[in-house]
Amino acid sequence: MALLQLTKNGLYCEQADVYIDPWRKVDRALITHGHADHSRWGHKAYLCTHSAKPVIRHRLGAKMKIQSIEFGQKMNMNGVSFSFHPAGHIVGSAQIRVEYKGEVWVASGDYKTEYDGISEAFELVKCNTYITESTFGLPVYKWQPQKEVFEDIHNWWRQNQRDGKVTILTAYSLGKAQRIIANLDPEVGPIFTHGAVEDINEIIREQGFYLPPTTRVNKTQKKGDFKNGIVITPASGLGTAWVKKFEPKSVGAASGWMAVRGARRRRSVDRGFVLSDHVDWESLNAVIEGTGAEQVLVTHGYSDIYSKYLREKGLKSQVLETQFEGEQQEEEEVEEIIGENEKKEKE
Ligand SMILES: [Zn+2]
Ligand SMILES: [Zn+2]
Predict the structure, then answer these.
(1) Same domain for 44 and 128?
(2) Residue 77 reports pLDDT greater than 70
(3) Most exposed residue of 32, 82, 145, 185, measured as fewest CB within 10 angstroms of its CB?
(4) 216-222: long-range contacts (C-beta < 8 A, 24 or more apart)?
């Protein structure tokens, strides 16, 4: 029997009777990170890393039983050894290593290898079986170094200042927004935030992570108060009356999907910045080679194509059908939508 297998509730370790990022309510869940498609509401007990816990607590509410563990610390459940290793995706995000009788599996959750300036740096973990996402598992996805992306963002911001426009940059409120803020130069101008972003900023700062100063957008501020500023907001903020006081404005989006033609138009933004918290094609392949895995199970995104590619390279590989297969084209938005639905469920 496989050490980890897919059940109707999600990825399951029968020997230890525990799930990893389950999508239905279970008794014991190991959680890779706080995004809504991985960390769902309603399990009896949660285990995540210490640094992932505050955001997960904020999202799931005070009643949920959430325990946490240090990166790298080993924990035994019925003979199975579990440990969490940095995934570099967002603050606290982990790959989960599972070892039983000398066999090692790693469930990676979401991950990226480039250090983003705030998330704990990705750690390559040797294993026999690697479970990987393939959100951007096609050669067309090739990321620029983040330094260059931020030069582009700063240049655009300065240009907007010369044009007398307020700069608005949309980003997912958990993870991407903090990564952007961490890399913005506050010398260029003031940084403003949507409440959903600032709520997370406060949690992350309280944990001891550094973010440059930001100002929450509130009802008392007037049009002129945003002069020379940049506003960081989830895309959902654009659809509300909230944006009116930023006129005249220039709107940008930061996402891996901005690498695809048409994505910018669909989102009706003026500028697209290709910035992803997932690995690109080259990094994906480098990680898989680096793990030394002889078997790779693929979820999310281009899993059919990518799994076939790995088989042609001589690896054992198959697709793990996750519940949201098919919707993954808009992974970052999916996370946001699920989060909002869960909020409703709780209320
Ligand atoms: Zn994620
Ligand atoms: Zn995800």
Answers:
(1) yes
(2) yes
(3) 145
(4) 216/192, 217/192, 217/193, 217/242, 221/245
Residue 115 above 50 pLDDT? yes
CATH number reported for the structural domain that contains residue 321 in this entry = 3.60.15.10
Q: Are residues 41 and 169 in the same domain?
A: no
What are the residues whose beta carbon lies below 5 Å from ligand 2 (ion)?
Answer: 37, 110
- What DSSP string describes 4-47? SEEETTEEEETTTTEEES-SS--SEEE-S-SSTTTS-TT-SEEE
Kind and range of the H or E element at 252?
strand 249-254
**Ligand 2 centroid, distance to 259 Cα (angstroms):** 18
> Which pTM does this prediction carry?
0.93
- Of the three residues 229, 253, 273, the one that is the final residue of a domain is 273
- Statement: residue 31 has pLDDT above 80: yes
How many angstroms is it from 338 CA to the middle of ligand 2? 11
C-alpha of residue 173 to centroid of ligand 1, in Å: 11
Q: How far is the CA of 33 from the centre of ligand 1 (A)?
A: 7
Note whether 209 and 285 are same-domain residues. Answer: no
Instruction: Assess whether 186 and 292 both reside in one domain.
Output: no
Average pLDDT over residues 283-291: 98
pLDDT at residue 336, rounded to an integer:
45
Question: Read out DSSP for 192-248?
Answer: EE-HHHHHHHHHHHHTT------EE--TT--GGGGTT-EEEE-GGGGGSGGGGGG-S
Each residue's pLDDT tens digit, 191-230: 999 999 999 999 999 999 999 999 999 999 998 999 999 9
Q: Which domain holds residue 90?
A: 5-141+277-346
Q: From CA 235, how far away is CA 194, in angstroms rounded? A: 10
Is the pLDDT at 341 greater than 50? The verdict is: no
Mean pLDDT for 131-160 is 96
